[in-house]
UniProtKB/TrEMBL annotation:
Signal peptide: none annotated. This is Sigma 54-interacting transcriptional regulator. GO terms for biological process: regulation of DNA-templated transcription. Keywords: Activator, ATP-binding, DNA-binding, Nucleotide-binding, Transcription, Transcription regulation. One of its GO terms (molecular function) is DNA binding. Residues 92-144 form the PAC domain. Transmembrane segments: none annotated. Residues 20-76 form the PAS domain. InterPro entries: AAA+_ATPase, AAA_lid_NorR, GAF, GAF-like_dom_sf, P-loop_NTPase, PAS, PAS-assoc_C, PAS-like_dom_sf. Residues 334-563 form the Sigma-54 factor interaction domain. It comes from Sulfidibacter corallicola.
């Protein structure tokens, strides 16, 4: 029987074993899997280069058997390693994302099993690390795409995206920036580095890798990026090797900022990657744009609120309104300098931009219609019709027909279809003058339209919808009428959304002179006459009249005087009533008389020329009367 060489010499057997071992080691060295044998004290007894590669350390550094925790934090160890006393017969692979010493990450599947070295008592653990980085990234990447395009954006949107970008592409840094006014500097809106969100920062783009991206085009530096941008301190500080950046633009092509991925390793796969990143970029950009639009809207709202507040504060500030009003409608048609009248102008200005219903109150001739017109002209409805209904002039039985129109044959004389005032005012403003004169039945009908915002023509069944802004006016005390049952309270509250009271002329004496001059200029022109002004005695008379007919009365008086006056200065030829004709109560007569006397004496109560002595009263009695009747000096 021939002997095999092994049997021949015992030394030869050992040699063969040695050879087998080195062949095995050579094979293990070349394996695509990372192999590591860890002893009981967690020292690395043996490892292959692929293991070192996966952990991002030089293979030589393993030669002096470091403990595993110097390379890999314990929480990333497979459970078999953490619990060596309980070796499993059926080791299960566990997936872990390794954080390498340089901060970058790497996905592996680890299978670990107890390993007894033949002939030795000690038990070690043999671990096999399989590279699942590619698969994991594809999964993360899919997850990223689904999430980024499906999720509704919230405050965490940008940070979430940077986290997912970093994980999906396995890079150590990912961030998104926003331009600061131009494309010279940017602010990060999310910055993810080494598995955690970082504080945002503002930085100058000059000489950085990002400079060629913002406002321009995508860039890709697969490796050696530090050498390309030696002045970019960030790259150096983080040990960056590769960089990919994509510009972000809004829907009109304006530059918004950019986003970038950076890694400490070279970055492969250029073209497919850029396409994907650009697609993700459109989603990020639309989110930035939406945020910016929202911020702008918020800002505009705040400014508007501030503006309204400022105007309310400035009600009594001299000269404030002139420019404001000129800009919105013809100031020359509305004359008045008194603080009381400025308040009216202020209210017009405040309310004209809105669609709210306005109730204009004031004595006859104070300018209610003019105010309604001014509100309409200054409103967005200016180019549309302003339709007036004089409720006092309408026979009650025709009100419905007038407001809502009728269909052909609705009543005996209805020969054709006719549109009512509501329909004519569509898109515009409906001005209901003398609203206090509406019958209760007509009030009910009006209320119904205001509530339902639609109506039918008389004799028709089709509902008509209109978009009408309502302005109502009255010289009656509607609140008192409500109390007395002459006016529906529900209608009153609907009309009185924005009450605008025009004070009578006697409460704003400062306005008399400018108004008189204004009317004089106007009539002189139409009469073809020239006047140098109004003579002193006439002015004195004008100032001391009580003006129960208010501005209309003044206007008529100036008109008549202009016709009769020979010139060159206007003389008021018609005697002015010192007391109102229409004073209905004793208190009103007394009140008007006191006001007109006080006007004549420049509101002096005491003294021989004072109001009290002219009225034959004790000054203190006069004072208490003034108080009781609520008399106050105009403009004070
Ligand atoms: N501030 C003003 N500046 C210039 N003209 C004015 C002013 N206010 C009113 N007027 C003029 O006075 C006249 C009466 O105004 P308007 O008809 O608007 O008053 P009203 O309060 O509606 O009167 P009524 O209660 O009698 O209907 C009009 O000719 C109007 O142009």
């Amino acid at each position: 029987m021939r002997r095999t060489p092994d049997d021949a010499e015992p030394g030869h057997h050992t040699k063969r074993l040695e050879m087998e071992k080195s062949r095995l080691e050579a094979m293990i060295r070349k394996l695509g899997e990372g192999i590591v044998l860890v002893d009981e004290t967690h020292r690395i007894a043996f490892a292959n280069p692929r293991f070192a590669d996966m952990l991002g350390v030089p293979f030589e550094s393993l030669a002096n058997h470091p403990t595993l925790d110097t390379l890999l934090p314990r929480d990333q160890w497979p459970s078999a390693l953490r619990d060596v006393a309980q070796p499993s017969d059926d080791p299960q692979p566990e997936e872990r994302q390794l954080t390498r010493v340089d901060g970058s990450t790497f996905w592996v599947s680890i299978t670990a099993t107890a390993f007894r070295v033949p002939g030795q008592e000690s038990v070690g653990t043999l671990c096999m690390f399989t590279d699942v980085n590619g698969r994991k990234h594809r999964e993360e990447y899919l997850d990223l795409l689904i999430d980024i395009f499906n999720r509704s954006a919230g405050p965490e949107f940008f940070t979430d995206v940077t986290r997912k970008l970093a994980r999906a592409f396995g890079v150590s840094i990912s961030f998104i920036t926003e331009c600061l006014g131009d494309t010279r500097s940017v602010r990060t809106i999310a910055f993810w580095q080494n598995g955690a969100p970082q504080k945002n920062r503002v930085y100058d783009l000059k000489d950085t890798a990002c400079e060629a991206v913002v406002g321009r085009s995508p860039v890709y530096y697969g490796s050696l990026v530090q050498q390309l941008f030696p002045k970019d301190r960030e790259l150096e500080a983080a040990g960056i090797e590769s960089y990919v950046g994509v510009p972000l633009t809004d829907s009109r092509g304006t530059s918004l900022g950019h986003f970038a991925l950076m890694d400490t390793q070279p970055f492969p796969n250029r073209t497919a990657l850029l396409d994907t990143l650009e697609m993700i970029g459109t989603r990020i950009a639309s989110e930035i744009e939406r945020n910016q639009t929202e911020a702008q809207l918020r800002h505009q709202n705040e400014r508007l609120r501030e503006e309204i507040k400022a105007r309310q504060r400035a009600v009594s500030t001299a000269n404030y309104y002139r420019d404001e009003i000129t800009s919105s409608y013809d100031v020359h048609t509305m004359i008045g300098e008194s603080p009381a009248f400025r308040k009216v102008l202020d209210s017009i200005r405040l309310v004209s931009g809105t669609d709210v219903t306005v109730l204009v109150t004031g004595e006859t001739g104070t300018g209610k219609e003019l105010v309604a017109r001014a509100i309409h002209e200054a409103s967005p409805r200016a180019g549309k019709p302003l339709i007036k209904v004089n409720c006092a002039a309408l026979p009650q039985e025709l009100i419905e027909d007038e407001l809502f129109g009728h269909e052909k044959g609705a009543f005996t004389h209805a020969q054709g279809q006719r549109k009512g005032r509501f329909e004519l005012a569509d898109q515009g403003t409906l001005f209901l003058d003398e609203i206090g004169e509406l019958s209760l039945a007509a009030q009910a009908k009006l209320l119904r339209v205001l509530q339902e915002k639609e109506f039918e023509r008389v004799g028709g069944s089709k509902s008509i919808k209109v978009d009408v802004r309502l302005i109502a006016a009255t010289n009656r005390d509607l609140a008192a009428m409500v109390r007395e049952g002459g006016f529906r309270d529900d209608l009153f509250y609907r009309l009185e959304v924005f009450p605008l009271h025009i004070p009578p002329l006697r409460e704003r004496m400062e306005d008399i002179e400018p108004l008189a001059h204004f009317f004089l200029r106007r009539f002189a022109r139409s009469l073809g006459k020239e006047f140098t002004g109004i003579d002193e005695t006439s002015l004195h008379m004008l100032r001391n009249a009580s003006w129960p007919g208010n501005i209309r009365e003044l206007e008529n008086l100036v008109h008549r005087s202009a016709i009769l006056s020979p010139g060159p200065s206007l003389q008021i030829a018609v005697p002015i009533r010192e007391a109102p004709e229409k004073a209905s109560t004793l208190d009103a007569v007394v009140r008007n008389h006191i006001v007109s006397v006080l006007n004549r004496v420049d509101w002096q109560v005491e003294g021989s020329d004072g109001g009290a002595s002219i009225l034959g009263m004790n000054p203190s009695t006069l004072r208490s009367k003034i108080k009781k009747l609520g008399i106050s000096r105009p403009g004070h």
